[in-house]
Every structure is written in structure tokens, then in C-alpha cells.
Amino acid sequence: MPVSQPAPRPAGLLSGHSGAGVLTIGELLRELSGEFPQVTASKIRFLEEKGLITPQRTRAGYRKYTAHDVERLRFVLALQRDQYLPLKVIKDYVDAIDRGERPDSLPGGMTLSPRVVSDQLSRELSAHTRRLTAETLAAEAGAPRRFVDDLVSFGLIAAVDNRFDEHALKITRACVQLESHGIEPRHLRPFRAAADRELGLVERVVAPLASRKDVASKARAAETAREISELCLGLHSALVHSHIARMDS
Q: Which residues form the HTH merR-type domain (predicted)?
């Protein structure tokens, strides 16, 4: 089935933008809602985690989406919806475009313009995809090497081919801050156990989709798993904060 392509917009012209040709995630959802009514913030964050888009961030950490981010999202979402292509195939294509290559056209005849990457964004992209040694992880998290070893031994982080990813860095930084309150890595083993239980729950829910052979079902299973995990995290946070609020009552 051919992909219906929206009329191209001039670069930088976005409806309802908050200024300077960039959008917040809420404005981005409104921009896409006409063509993709089912898209959610969780879906956009999932695509970001997979490296398909890399929005710039403010100093406070808020995401800002450019006209090219919107074009790229439309491209990815249309290929998923109409051609059922796996994200890896789509990512390989957009990465090739950004390297200045001219890959073969994808089904539906859609094309994507290259991304113009600033020096700052290029550094951010490099940081997003790099893998860290234990020594580099410790240095960036502000922790001694033995602290990283403790996190590994208690199952809080794990290396793949002796390298740690971005998630391991976030976990290590959080554990360093918790240690400043007297909470050591050995105290955090219940978090690992709770995460494993949550993962087991998610896997049971998406098992019917994940067991299918077609790539569209596997993509939907991954998206559903992420949405459920986001809801579980929200529930956990609400439960904890409801108890903390009682301290003031």
C-alpha cells in the first residue's frame, strides 16, 4: 500500500509553535494528532530512546523539537503504520541519510531530507550511543571504581562486552546520590527484585503479541511494553508520594 505523504511544510514553519521554530512535546503531539491520532508521549520517548530522533534540550532538560524532528517523526510513524517496517530497518535508513549517503528507497517511495547537525548536537548524539568502560562510568558518575563493582555484584547494573550503556550511567548516578543519604548499594537489591517482578508482569501481558512472527506484532509488543512500564512507574511514584504527603498531615 502506498504511503500517503502530507504536503511538505517550509522548514521552521510549525503550527502552534511556542517560538523560535521549536515545539514542546505537548505541541508536537498536537502537530501530529491529525495524521497520527494514536501517537502518545510514551511513543515519542520510545523512538528517542531507539535513536530515531534526538531532540535538543534546554538547560533545565526539557525537550525541544525542530521542524526536522517533526518531518522525521512523520516519516517513521508513516512507515510503521503503512508498511509495518521494523524500527531497525527505518533507523538504518535515516542514519544513512544523515551520513550523506543515498540508500535505496523504502517501500511507499517516501524520502527524508538529511539532518543538519550542530557541533553541540553532534556531541550529544555521540554521548547517546557510546559505551563506557567501568573506569569511565565511575569517573562520569563521580564514584570510585569499587562502587561500580558493588552495583554489578548486587545486580543493579550489567555490562555487555565489558561496556556499560547510558542506563547504567543513570543508575550509577542515582545510587551515588542515594549513598549520600546513607543508602548503600547493598540496600538497593529490593529495587532490582521489584524491577524484575514488574518486567515479568509486562512480559505476560505482551506475550501474545511478542510470540507472533511478523515484525508489526513485535513492534506493537515493544511499544505496549513501554507504555505499561511507564504506567507502572507512575503508579509507584504516586503510591510513594501519597505516603510521604502524610508526613505533613
A: 38-96
Measured CA to CA, the distance from residue 155 to residue 185 in angstroms comes to 10
pLDDT per position as a tens digit, 144-191: 999 999 999 999 999 988 899 888 999 999 999 999 999 999 999 999
DSSP 3-state of 127: helix
Q: How many CB atoms lie within 10 A of CB 85?
A: 20
Residue 191: all three cell numbers together: 529495587
What are residue 160's phi and psi, to 5 degrees? -120, 120
Indicate the fold that domain 130-183 takes in CATH: Multidrug-efflux Transporter Regulator; Chain: A; Domain 2 (1.10.1660)
pTM of the model: 0.52
Q: Would you say residue 203 has pLDDT above 50?
A: yes
**Cell matching residue 40:** 502518545
